[in-house]
Automatic annotation (TrEMBL):
The keyword Nucleotidyltransferase does not apply. It comes from Phyllotreta striolata (Striped flea beetle). It comes from the Eukaryota. The keyword Isomerase does not apply. The lineage of its organism: Eukaryota, Metazoa, Ecdysozoa, Arthropoda, Hexapoda. Gene3D superfamilies: Glycosidases (3.20.20.80). This is Glycoside hydrolase family 1.
Length: 503
């Protein structure tokens, strides 16, 4: 071969190799990448009826239906953050983190849900709480609504199935925003998908409704309208505020079970029904087309007269679209979707509308309640999917975490989990150019995990719930996270880690 031809081939090979080889990262965090930890009011505060707080639907649900909570527990006292917030915030700060996520309890501020009665003790509590966060130079990330709807509103018929909820949540949000201008990042509504699916279709979260799909869709419509209305009110009435606002949208990664066309479509359908149902109206406008088509065609087949999915007016489409300054992503697992071959066309349900069956790969580690799998590159895939479908927005991961059974303080699984997941997030940032600006770990402490009671342990700190002193004991991962916050660097060289399961 003539020299010049060999040279040309060599140059071409080098060029095409460099085109194919993605930019590798060395585990360093980008300059503005922040770490944080999160909690929510009902899960940690306790003091359910103290100092003027009104009951929420969660107080009622856990009191009336202990059988629906795995260990028959409730969060009347839980880990008592109401009285121990100074210690908890100091412990958060000792992790070296910058973002402290917490939520306001609506009935601690407006005991019966209406803005006509304000509880000064509740206001004082959050004032002190936020002052403490600022004292340690952390940024308060305040969630306006994390599922604890005031019971009185619910008893008056106003919940996520009643259009009146929108004005009430805006009144409450306005008061919280005005009263706590120190909040550095606002989360308007936490996980509307989980709230609507588990609260209005499956019934395992308050208010415990087992629905035929219609209730879930109404809930989706009203949470989206609320996200839009809170955001528009915020921008209009508080133009001088600098804090960004977005909902925390849960989105898991769904892969097709096989490479058949049916399963590919099933996976896509499930992504659209779970994530797209909320991301599409907020970042593009209106429901995802496939969601509309699917629900409508099943309704027609079953000869049902009334529409099952509420229709947005053009005005609603416009005010919901763009009602987020960034994407707040809560991510917990990856699952496989398979096409559901047979479903009775006359049995109406969200599950039948989606028409998929989920499973986990046998090789994946699944936590002890069978809900969450550990698939580190799932987070990278979901980040890419979000960017591809909804545009190049800033993404703050508002929740990411893993649970264990609480039997040991040596939670190596959490250390490996955060290492591998954050390494994948760094790959998304450096190699795929997804604009992720931080990760808020869930959770700061073990606490009340909704229908899993005290059986799930998500925290960096372990608390034996039967211990009257509620002693906070650091797990091994607390030190790991502190070191990570300081070095801002991970060693990302174990793609085939041997996971220390089962957990
Ligand atoms: C999402 C919820 O926002 C949070 O409250 C819960 O503890 C975690 N998922 C873990 O299930």
């Amino acid at each position: 071969m003539a020299f010049s031809m060999r040279f040309t081939i060599l140059v071409l090979t080098i060029c095409s190799l460099s085109e194919q080889t993605p930019k590798k990262h060395n585990g360093h965090f980008p300059k503005h990448f922040l770490l944080g930890a999160g909690t929510s009011a009902y899960q940690v505060e306790g003091a359910w009826n103290l100092d003027g707080k009104g009951p929420s639907i969660w107080d009622e649900f856990a009191h009336k239906h202990p059988e629906r909570i795995i260990d028959h527990s409730n969060a009347d006292v839980t880990i008592d953050t109401y009285h121990r917030y100074k210690e908890d915030i100091a412990l958060a700060s000792s992790l070296g983190i910058k973002l402290f996520r917490f939520s306001f309890s609506w009935p601690r501020i407006f005991p019966n849900g209406y803005n006509t009665t304000i509880n000064p003790h509740g206001v004082k509590f959050y004032k002190n709480f936020i002052r403490e966060i600022l004292k340690y130079d952390m940024i308060p990330v305040g969630t306006i609504y994390h599922w604890d709807l005031p019971l009185q509103l619910y008893n008056d018929g106003i919940d996520w199935n009643h259009p009146g909820i929108v004005n009430h949540i805006v009144d409450y949000a306005r008061y919280v925003i005005k009263t706590f201008p120190e909040v550095g990042i606002w989360v308007s509504i936490n996980e509307p998908h989980t709230l609507c699916h588990l609260g209005y279709s499956i019934g395992v979260l308050a208010p415990g409704i087992k629905g035929d799909g219609k209730q879930e869709y109404m809930c989706a419509y009203l949470t989206l309208k609320s996200i839009g209305a809170i955001y528009r009110m915020y921008k209009k009435e508080f133009p001088h505020y600098k804090a960004k606002m977005a909902p925390a949208l849960d989105c898991q990664w769904i892969e097709p079970k096989s490479n058949s066309k049916e399963d590919e479509e099933a996976a896509n359908r499930q992504r659209e029904f779970k994530c797209g149902m909320y991301y599409h109206p907020i970042f593009i406008g209106d429901w995802p087309p496939i969601v509309k088509e699917r629900i409508e065609s099943r309704r027609l087949k079953a000869h049902i007269k009334e529409p099952r999915l509420p229709k947005f007016t053009p005005e609603e489409i416009e005010y919901i679209k763009g009602s987020a300054d960034f994407i707040g992503l809560n991510h917990y697992y990856t699952a496989l979707a398979e096409d559901l071959k047979e479903s009775d066309p006359n049995v109406m349900s969200y599950g039948n509308d989606v028409g998929t069956v989920n499973s986990f790969k046998p090789s994946w580690i699944v936590e002890n309640n069978g809900l969450f799998s550990i698939v580190p590159d799932g987070v990278r895939k979901v980040l890419n999917w979000i960017k591809k479908n909804y545009g190049d927005h800033e993404i703050l991961i508002t929740e990411l975490g893993v649970t264990e059974d609480g039997s040991s303080l040596n939670d190596n699984i959490r250390i490996d989990f955060f290492t591998d997941y954050i390494c994948n997030i760094l790959s998304a940032v450096y190699e795929d150019e997804v604009n992720v600006t931080g990760v808020i770990a869930w959770s700061l402490m073990d606490s009340f995990e909704w229908s899993n009671g005290y059986k799930s342990h998500f925290g960096f700190y372990n608390i034996n719930i039967t211990d009257p002193n509620k002693t906070r004991k650091p797990k091994k991962s607390a030190k790991f996270f502190r070191d990570l916050s300081q070095t801002r660097k991970l060693t990302c060289d174990k793609p085939n880690r041997d996971w220390p399961g089962p957990f």
